[in-house]
Design brief:
The protein is mainly α and 466 residues long. The protein has 22 helices and no strands. The protein is globular and about 75 Å long.
């Protein structure tokens, strides 16, 4: 107990020292720049101090991720880089806030009704009960769900199903590899779906906002899916082949509990609302509806009088507010990195420009592998996207290249966390089952990461993403 208290005390002390350092560097930024000039100038020192505080606090887990994100928003006015009204406007005033809120409300509805389980079990029935086929059905269900209701919600829906299968399979000769591969499938399937649409992860939403704001590039739902879908399903095939090797081809069929009540009124409305949202996300631009507007409309519809798919108070407790805060803070932090030249400085520090001009395939593979390594440092998919996307846009400008060609492999890679469990809540959910160890995931994850680099680079080259 004493050791635990000492560790908590050390983390608290480090957090406050970092806070003080940010303020101190900001106050004396001019003097620091005169003593050791940076291309960024005095304001660059303040921006770097803020970025260092965020990265160290997130990586060392000095405070919950959302607390650090809020601290970034509160600290910014003290640095002189942005006033408080500007901070709130840039973060919570961005339409991405409304977009992600609507998507999270839909995600909550999927978890609170049997619809997610019904879709997953339907896929199981289509694929059969052989262990390898069940694994494929589970991963495909995760991929399809994550495309529309976020990776985390998809994993949360599939986890109890997979756990039920594992429990029912106790005593089988292949029980251990079956449990391990199914739980890894719960993590990997939604991660593959996180590539397919711009709403599947928070980092995707941040990337779309950054591209429009800093590069003047508007990526529609259809344009994203035109690239994301083939990458997503190729990743799914590769991931399934990698995991299925551990399951005997001659294994006995599984017994699955498919006891789900008949579809009720609320569930039927959710299906209608969900399908209309997909239709409007893809084609709403033709009638003047932005994808952000559609997301909030779909979320609002769940609470309308006489419909009430969700109870408002229950939904508020179910929503991942820390994710919303992180995204809003991330948008502001990215704005600061871009405006004050920090993104340009980090681009030259973290990436070798000559390796970014080797053609679509080699450039894409290099970006994916580099981002995969950096994600281990940042310890969070969304954090990696927040920090790295402005760098990619800046680097593209320096090399007179397409910003989307650089951002696409970066953001697709940021959705995929195969090596470190703590990089994504999608990994943490199935890890709670105890069916696989960090080493189990890392060994298979390294192979999958290399495969992902090749797959993403291949499709970027084939589809001529420029």
């Amino acid at each position: 107990m004493t050791a635990k208290k000492n560790k908590a005390g050390a983390k608290a002390l480090a957090f406050y020292l970092l806070l003080a350092a940010v303020v101190g560097v900001s106050v004396f930024s001019g003097e620091l720049n005169r003593a050791a000039p940076l291309p960024l100038g005095g304001e660059g020192y303040a921006a770097l101090a803020l970025l260092a505080f965020a990265i160290l606090s997130w990586c060392l887990q000095l405070a919950p991720i959302a607390v650090t994100a809020l601290a970034v928003l509160v600290l910014l006015p003290f640095t002189g880089l942005m006033d408080f009204a500007g901070v709130i406007q840039a973060g919570f005033g961005d339409s991405t806030f409304a977009f992600f809120l609507g998507v999270l409300l839909l995600s909550a509805a999927f978890q609170k009704t049997p619809l997610g389980r019904r879709i997953a079990l339907l896929i199981f029935r289509v694929f059969g009960r052989a262990p390898r086929r069940v694994l494929l059905g589970l991963m495909l269900a995760g991929t399809l769900l994550a495309m529309w209701v976020t990776e985390v919600a998809a994993a949360a829906i599939l986890y109890p199903l997979a756990l039920s299968i594992v429990e029912q399979s106790r005593g089988r000769p292949d029980a251990e590899p079956l449990a391990r591969t199914l739980m890894l499938g719960v993590a990997w399937g939604p991660a593959f779906g996180g590539v397919a649409t711009p709403i599947a992860t928070g980092a995707n939403l941040v990337a779309v906002a950054y591209l429009e704001q800093y590069a003047g590039i508007s990526i529609s739902f259809g344009e994203w899916m035109g690239i994301g879908l083939p990458i997503s399903f190729t990743l799914l095939a590769a991931g399934w082949l990698l995991l299925a090797r551990e399951l005997p081809r001659t294994a006995a069929p599984l017994e699955l509990n498919s006891d789900i009540p008949p579809m009720g009124r609320k569930e039927a409305f959710l299906v209608t609302d969900f399908l209309l949202a997909i239709l409007l996300w893809v084609a709403g631009g033709q009638i003047g509806l932005s994808s952000h507007h559609v997301a909030l409309l779909a979320g609002l519809a769940l609470f309308l009088p006489g419909i009430e798919v969700l109870d408002w108070k229950d939904a508020v407790r179910s929503i991942s507010w820390d994710s919303i805060i992180l995204i809003c803070a991330g948008i502001v932090l990215g704005d600061v990195l871009y405006q004050y030249g920090v993104a340009e400085w980090m681009a030259n520090l973290l990436f070798v420009p000559s390796l970014m001009q080797k053609g679509l395939f080699l450039t894409g593979a290099y970006i994916v592998l580099t981002v995969s390594v950096l994600k281990i440092l940042f310890s969070s998919n969304t954090v990696a996207g927040v920090i790295l996307v402005p760098i990619m846009i800046t680097l593209a400008g320096q090399l007179d290249a397409s910003a989307w060609a650089f951002v696409a492999p970066c953001i697709f890679s940021s959705a995929l966390s195969f090596i470190v469990i703590t990089s994504s809540p999608v990994n943490v959910i199935p890890y709670a089952s105890g069916c696989f160890t960090p080493g189990d995931m890392a060994r298979r994850g390294v192979v999958m990461t290399v495969a992902a680099a090749a797959i993403i680079a291949f499709w970027l080259a084939v589809l001529r993403v420029v």
